[in-house]
Amino acid sequence: MEQHRAVVVGAGIGGLTAAVALSRQGWDVTVLERAAGLAPVGAGIALAPNALRALDRIGLGEPVRELAAWQGDGGMRRPDGRWLARTDAQAAAARFGGPLVLLHRATLVDLLTSALPDGAVRTAAPAALTDPGDARRPARLITPDGETEAELLVAADGIRSAARAALFPGHPGPRYSGFTTWRTVIPAPEAPFAPHETWGPARLWGSQPLKDGRVYAYAMAAAPAGARAPHGEKAELLRLFGDWHHPVPAILDAAEETTILRHDVHHLIDPLPAFHVGRTALLGDAAHAMQPTLGQGGNQAIEDAIVLAHHAGGPAGPGGSGGPAVPAALAAYTADRLPRTTALVRKAARTGRLALLSARPAVALRDAAVTAVSRFGPGLVLRGFDGIADWRPPVDDGAPRVS
């Protein structure tokens, strides 16, 4: 373990952020990705001020902020187009200390990988945890090249995490939320529109402009687990949303069947007892998969990565966390992250139940409540993100860090 090696399993947003943060603190980092390439499975991602402040710690906050596409009004609508609540980008930025940035996941992946040393990311490299390690021995995993040891192992291997199953075999794992999602990116329609999220009975649609001129669209609907549209996903979206307000029909008209992604939503509604065992830490969806209703899944993975690197410190020198101090650093990581993410998983689930109400009286009552709240101005609407978007990374305790 003389090299003070950190291994990250999974090259998603959280895993790559952790790799960059650890690398900049002096760790020799290797990222192992099962897929043959880094083309991200997904479309857009919304980065809130909390994630942008986390990215500031690795020098990527400002490059992402420059991609902010919309600085005007947006909000929540009904399927007929009536506004239920209006939000103001400037009011949100003033309240939370920065903008909400919509960008394509591929753009963020490119930014993160470009900040890593050449050769740090290995694709087509599945890995299986064999020993989480402890204060006296390294973590171990099996890779295509044989057994690998790591002083610090970060498992960012997603919602179906094999590492989580190995560390906590008695945990029930992810549960189906009751709804499925669709996502796509298309060229912007000719007629302009304000960004919006539209709530209907047991259905939800969002249209968000990107800086490059395209539109990120997403949808949710109640559905049985594993269901698929018999005539294609575009036809299913037209059936569910084709008569909704502009720009929904125009977006659906422009969408290609091959660009529409559909995924059932599972979440870890049962919290884990910890986010680490020995020298192995879980991160992102592997630790706390949540419904997308707060737009915080990727944001929380970024937070995880920065907090983990903060506690891990530099691997050598006074105050560093090399050697037997790694398990203690990961215990501090769990203490920081488990309460916050557990609360957000539960809040996202509550928001999901509210968004996908189906009974007409309940939908009417929900819409009336949202409208009433919005009459007091954007500040009251934005209050729902207090404690989420205003989060800040932990303050450096003054211990030396390897840069």
Condensed summary:
With 403 residues, this protein is an alpha/beta fold. The chain has helices spanning 13-23, 49-56, 61-65, 89-96, 105-114, 162-167, 233-241, 248-254, 285-288, 297-312, 326-355, 360-374, 378-382, and strands spanning 5-9, 28-32, 44-47, 73-77, 83-88, 101-104, 121-122, 128-131, 139-143, 146-150, 152-155, 175-187, 196-200, 203-209, 214-222, 261-267, 276-277, 280-282.
Description:
By secondary structure, the chain is of the alpha/beta class. The chain has a domain at 5-71 and 96-173 and 268-351: FAD/NAD(P)-binding domain (3-Layer(bba) Sandwich), CATH 3.50.50. Helix content is 33%, strand content 24%.
| Backbone CA Rg | 21 Å
Query: What's the helix count?
Result: 13
User: Would you state the CATH class of the domain at 5-71 and 96-173 and 268-351?
Assistant: Alpha Beta
Q: DSSP strand (E) fraction?
A: 15-25%
Q: Stretches where pLDDT falls below 50 for ≥5 residues?
A: 398-403
User: Considering the protein shown, what is the CATH homologous superfamily of the domain at 5-71 and 96-173 and 268-351?
Assistant: FAD/NAD(P)-binding domain
Report the span from N to C terminus.
20 Å
Tell me, briefly, the overall form.
globular
User: Roughly what percent helix?
Assistant: 25-40%
Profile the largest sheet: 7 strands, mixed
Average of per-residue pLDDT values: 91
> What's the CATH architecture of the domain at 5-71 and 96-173 and 268-351?
3-Layer(bba) Sandwich
- Helices and strands: which structural class? alpha/beta
